[in-house]
Design a protein that fits this description.
Layout lengths: L3 E5 L11 E8 L2 H9 L7 E4 L5 E2 L4 E8 L4 E6 L3 E7 L4 H10 L24 E2 L2 E2 L4 E8 L4 E6 L20 E11 L12 H7 L7 H15 L7 E5 L5 E3 H10 L5 E3 L4 E4 L1 H7 L6 E2 L2 E3 L6 E4 L5 H19 L8 E2 L1
Parallel strand pairs: 2-5, 3-5, 4-20
Antiparallel strand pairs: 1-2, 6-7, 7-12, 8-9, 10-11, 10-12, 13-19, 14-16, 15-16, 17-18, 18-19
This protein binds flavin-adenine dinucleotide (FAD) and NADP nicotinamide-adenine-dinucleotide phosphate.
The site of flavin-adenine dinucleotide has 33 residues, from β3, β8, β12 and β13.
Length: 338
Amino acid sequence: MNPIKNASLKKYNTFGFDVQCSHLIEIHNETDLLELYAEDFFDNHFRVIGGGSNILLTRNYSGGILLNRLMGHWMESEDEHSIDITFGAGENWHQTVLHCVKNNWGGLENLSLIPGCVGASPIQNIGAYGIEVKDKIVSVRVFDTTSGEFVILSNEDCRFGYRDSIFKRAEYKHLIVTSVTFHLSKINHELKLNYGDIQHELKQQNVSQPTIADVSNAVIAIRRSKLPDPAVLGNSGSFFKNPVVEMDIFKAAQLKYPEIKWFPVDETHVKVAAGWLIETAGWKGFKKGNVGVHEKQALVLVHFGGGKGEEISSLAREIQTDIHDKFGIVLEFEVNIW
Ligand code: FAD
Ligand code: NAP
């Protein structure tokens, strides 16, 4: 495993912030986890990083960082209609989606081009273009760092919610995801096209009878046109969640801003587009020192280089306060602040 002492995490977070951890360890197989358990590694502070695309590093970390590099994929079961297939937690998410699309296994295509690893996909129940990964997850295999055992959690055990799961809660931070099993279709794919610009993009590409590959290509094209590539401009995707707000709070905001962008959730709640709130409040394209708000997508905070994570967290708090003052709505961070 060869731990590296006082390692820089700069290349392991997509914001590109240069902070250090006391030691960095790459995990390549489940035996590595058992060895660390035997050495009492988990008695001390530790954290796991996959692709580092949903974290904001604001300070040096005195504990150990595990880089999840558990690779591989294997079939659990299949019939003429569907397949249950497992991917190692360290597999790249987008390559996993492309592998499924290439094999004509349907279900994940709307989640194309999301950065990061398979192991992080259940953590915040990744979602895009009307699909949440929870809809395709059968089970999640985890290593329990307190008992030293591997456990399989069912979809229900994970208590998935909107960009949420048990893994985000402090009392489950002792679990390390080692692999995820997905249930995918082999025929009669249920395409999800009524979200965002997918239909418009398919039309642009002269596609009238889309396949899952067409949908994946459309999503990739839309995302490339709107979102900054972390390899070029540091970012962690949407910094804030779309707030799900109670009807009376929403009605008060709507009275002031009749054009507010919202979507129904249930009888007493609506989801408000956080990007719309931030843009309407005038933050889109804002720059302060080494950081700012992306010029094409107000939900994305960016690092131009040479800055510190605290600059992003301070800008995020300024935006939070301003949105609350203007709309009476509280924005929550989607990115994990470390
Ligand atoms: P990391 O950033 O490495 O980790 C995120 C959290 O998960 C941390 O708390 C970490 O400790 C924990 N973690 C990671 N791996 C494990 C593991 N194996 N076991 C236990 N805990 C673990 N997200 C969406 O939902 N939808 C999008 O459309 C989307 N688009 C994005 C676009 C861009 C340009 C960027 C930069 C980000 C985007 N994201 C999106 C956010 C992010 O890519 C996802 O949340 C992704 O799943 C994070 O994966 P990761 O491997 O990089 O996680
Ligand atoms: P968009 O299409 O401009 O839509 C703006 C917001 O409205 C989205 O956040 C989306 O919510 C919501 N929305 C749109 N159509 C909807 C519908 N039919 N029903 C319910 N909600 C609807 O969004 P975008 O910024 O270009 O992003 C496109 C997709 O990629 C979204 O699903 C978004 O979540 C995802 N994305 C996520 C990240 C991230 O880091 N988390 C980064 C980039 C893109 P939802 O976000 O709930 O879908």
